[in-house]
Amino acid sequence: MKGILKSKSKKIYGLVGRGISYSFSAKYFNDKFTKKEMDNCYYQNFDLEYIGELRNVLDETKKLKGLNVTIPYKEDIIPMMDSLSKTARIIGAVNTITISKKGKLKGYNTDYFGFKKALKPLLESHHEKALILGTGGASKAIAYALRKLKIEYDFVSRTATDVIFSYDDLDKEIFDEYQIIINTTPVGTYPNVNEYPALDYNLFTEKHIAFDLVYNPEETAFLKKAAAHGATTSNGYKMLVYQAEKAWKIWNK
What we know:
NAD(P)-bd_dom_sf; Rossmann fold; amino-acid biosynthesis; 8 helices; aromatic amino acid biosynthesis; Shikimate_DH_fam; shikimate 3-dehydrogenase (NADP+) activity; single chain
């Protein structure tokens, strides 16, 4: 575990994850604090090798007020919560945590809110069904948002089951039926910028939306290859901004 800030003068917020030096959150929030002249606030990364190290963070970080959670801990962190919001309980994943004065942890999910708000302006009448690439914690929030938008969806994983497509299953017939393709996996994240989900990108058309939760790089190989066949594309940056602002409201309500 890296870099616990022991400060008695600042309100500390942070991001819990693994391999998160590239992360959006610390720069976003510290820039926000600077712009708003909130000198009493600071945001830092808590890069944990395993989720049990969070106990050390909670014990040693003074004035810790709130946390965000990212890959790979959005599901693993749930048993450590004292309570969950209704939405986080339904989704089964946590990406935002409040810490009470008594040290009680409450888990929330703001990913679904950020994704829903980012996707909605891209939707047209023919966008009725979606494929969610990946089955991790992030995918659960995406599924919840799609339900709220009344969009049908199915999951795609490396191994097929009775209810999950494999990548090898995806053919023209399926692509014609599912015209929103959402990558919730970390494939293509910096520094592995030449990697992309194993799809036949010739199946994308101008009627498709390709949405990648990855935001670094700005245009992933997945988005480039989909755009080359006319798809509307979006990375995860706007989603992150929307979910971050929602988290900030939760921390300060």
